Request: fold
Amino acid sequence: MQYPEHRPVDDALIPPRLSAILVMVLWASCYPLITIGLDFAPHLTFASLRAVTAGSALLLVALCLGKPFPKDRAEWGWIALAGLGMTGLGYFGMFHAAEFVAPGMATVVANTQPIFAAVLAYGLIGERLALRGWTGLLIGFLGVIIVAAPQVFAGNERSTGLGLMYVLLAALGVAAGNVAIRKLANRVDAAMAMGLQLLIGAIPLMIIAVLTEHPRAVVWSPGFIVSLVGLALPGTALAFWLWQTTLRSMPLSKANVFSFLVPFLGITIGALFFAEPLTLMVMIGVVLAGIGVYLVVTA
Reply:
């Protein structure tokens, strides 16, 4: 049985551009919570707990609201792609890369994701981006490079080929997952789809964690519980729910370009709460990223 490509599932609560920015703020706030949590749990074990907690919360909300499970095999296929790409490969690559690649280089490689997603969206779902939009993507990416440049060229020996491969794998996974979420946006309830994709994506993470780590080594301290709950509920569950509802009314490439703002939002959070400096390079990067976002969303 074929389901229509677009069928309304719920009404937008806030304007899509504002929703996209809010998602990026929530994702940027995850970085300090991850830093706190990794003091108490192995990397992939922590990532698995994050995905399972967030996915279970969203699925519970969907069931309480009486939302149906997907019935079409194509819908399940897109949900599986979102889970294995966005959650599985995305979390695996970024969490593993932490010990192999310097933060600056990781930021640059990870932010190739909007470009990959634009290419995949064109090939898989027929989304076209005008020349103005492609120009904006490149300018926004240049802004990210400028911000990360001091770390990239500092001669940090942590940046290895294996680490870069992990980050690139994560970027490709997230790009493919974003295409799948866009495809699901008007077909499956957001809480149901995102809850299921998080739980599906958690499966390979849990298997690898059991085989390579010591899950019982988690220290269930108040600090870890606070970091896990903050990371899983607002930082993941709410963010993913908002992200799918955003993609109901915005093309993926136009919504995804806001992810160029995540490094700058993270730096701002660091400046406000951890006394990290805001340098001239950061300011130049912010301006370029802002120009890039403007060109894409108005293309």
In short: DSSP finds 13 helices and no strands in the chain. The first helix runs from residue 16 to 28.
